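Sample pair:
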Amino acid sequence: MATSQGASLDRKKLLADPIMVTTIVVLVTFLALFILYPLAILLVDSFISDQGGITFDIFRRVMAKPDFKKAIVNTLEIGAITGILSTLIGLLFAYVEEYVQLRTKFMSGLFKVVSILPVVSPPFVLSLSMILLFGRSGIISKTLLGIQNSNIYGMRSIILIQTMTFFPVCYMMLRGLLKNIDPSLEEAARDMGATRWQVFTTVTFPLLLPGLGNAFLVTVMESIADFANPMMIGGNVDTLATAIYMQITGNFDKKGAAAMAVVLLSITFVMFFVQKYILEAKSTATLSGKASRQRMLITDRSVRIPLTIMCSAIAIIVIAMYICVPYGSVITTWGRNYTLTNKWYLKVFNNYRGADAFTDSFIMAFIASPITSLLSMIISYLVVKKKFALRGFIEFTSMLAMAVPGTVLGVGFVRGYSNGLFHTGVLQWLYGTAAILIIVFVVRSLPTGTRSGISALRQIDKSIEESAYDMGANSFQVFMTVTLPLIKDSFLSGLVTAFVRSITAISAVILVVNPKILLITVQINEYANRGEYAVACAFSTILILITYTAVLGMNIFIKYFGTSRAQVEEA
């Protein structure tokens, strides 16, 4: 009874606050227009005939295509294998980080850098490196091994590249779980005579199992949604993401592309539901709180040396592949003449409108990132701190974008804003402008920032904000002067994450971008597909420099202007 009265009082306070009500209305409108509406249009295109009746003819026509059936099988196979390999490698790096005593700090720092490198890099850099190393003019395949007609395009290459791209996601997820395992549980098993392997299989692994399933599904969703790598290195192997792209750009079949997008969305949505509402909850329940004390790291040579060798081998491969791209941008002719030159950079800026591409991409990412970060914090604040009828809708819809592959979202925006309900009227001006690209950037990065904000806000005592309300502050003043400063680390990290995701995005924008607007990622994809790898390397190198400069600059900013170590310890 008391709970219902408290909820009723909270709703009355909310309705009496015009700023909060306006914020909720604006948020609901934004989420409905730019997340739910594009997805709804896909369903309408797929199930509604030109005469207005419900039909399955479009699905029958699409599913009758042998190439599309093969694309579904390829997508699921690649996703499953990539998920398994990424989870295993991520677990290896996380276990070494949290359990093994490394000989030098350099080794520990190296493993951390390698684990984070693919996260803040353009999605196709490793594919480009694979071509430079093992392609027909590859430095390993042709120069070292003498193989003249090396063919690296296909499913195996996609799986290898996606594994190296996505294993850091598993590493970051599993590292947190391993850190929260109470060492006393494992030490009790050791005291009873269990070996290291027995402790891992009977104590550590069962505790990690929900988290492993969670990491596996997240990676499978990332793999299934990936467009850039299969497009660049897939060769004749089609996936659902590339099939949708070719259906709308090659066959000009927008309804067919919408039906394909619904198939892909159905697969990712089921995985998202299981990952978000079943495995993530079980993982949190299994490993709640922090470890009671610091863990004694493993120093046994029989464990330390093999694990260190495996991590070192993977690290060397990843670093070698990342070195290839900048090296390829300063070579006269890859595979023939390795004389250093700057002609490709001159071509990028003089012949290929590189300055325009970097300017357009940087400005749009720069605009989208603060909008995304602020929206994420506002949504997090409403979800955690307020009780109102549409709270569940806002939380679910903002996180729903995580389950929507970029290609699917792109088709939804094309259908929704080029010839949907808003092909005329107040929102007609959006399609084909930079504004719609900024909106796509915001929608794609919103779930990451929201999840981070929710985690940070749940650690703040409600009484801190209530005291500000008691002193006469309105909701806007409380949010800006009390809540936001307390979660500024999450806000700033969300800012740089949104910037990196926006400036390196391709799958969501390649269908929406106007030819008059140049994006770096689209340019890289275009020149790589033409076989102009040196130009693609030059574009990629500059993009890598931009993203790493942004990450480094933001880390320095957080270090000196973010929450201090003393404040963190007090909290």
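The chain is about 75% helix and 0% strand.
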